[in-house]
Design brief:
Layout (H helix, E strand, L loop, with lengths): L2 H17 L3 H13 L1 H37 L1 H13 L1 H23 L3 H32 L1 H4 L6 H30 L3 H26 L5 H24 L1
Helix pairs in contact: 3-4, 3-9, 3-10, 4-8, 5-6, 5-8, 6-8, 8-10, 9-10
Length: 246
Amino acid sequence: MNLYSLAILVAISAFIACGFLGLDYILKIGRGITAGFSGFFEGFKQQGRYALVGVLTTDATANSHVYLVTFMLGPEAYAPLAAARLLFRPISVVFQSITQVERPKVRKLILEGKIKVAQSHLKKGRDVTLVAWGINTLVCVCVLSFFLDYYWRSDTGHHALIIATILIGLINLIKSIRNPLSLYLQAVDKFKPLSLITIKSAIVTIPTVFFCLQLWGGAYSLIGVLVGELITFLLLKKLFTREINE
């Protein structure tokens, strides 16, 4: 028996086992699942669709170089970029952690009318993120300066690795500054204007990544991502300023 056959057998066994729970119990579970659909669709209609567009276009902005470099030059050409991204993995974890922790806190403060407290809270989060970015960048400099041959054992790709690390460092610096703005705007339900910002950024990012890739090679495609992040930051700053002045 191979793994595929075993998986089929387990699936059939689980399906048969459900019959012993009884039809009433199965129907009760089904009603419980479908009961929340109306609320889900209403929420999706109000904000969810804009959030979905934002997620898709944000991914296009942040990862277009991944798809284009791999598709046009092959996975070997993307290897130095992947190694550079790995060096900045700690700051990516910080971004995700702070967003997950701070978003509900900021939302609660805004609902309580404590706007100034919420903004002060975000500034502290930004400062923490910038310190983490500085430490992460210092570690990257040490690795590439003193342990490059251990970290990157290939005889080729050193230049691409260094260029990619510099550009990813700059990209993460912009993210450190603009993430609190995005978090605040999400907390005040500005998903529609946020989705428009990410669409505009993606429209500029993807062609820029493509042309930089064609002109200078894989590592320099990150210039397009950097331009996209800068545009996102400027548009977020404008929207944020307008929001707090209303």
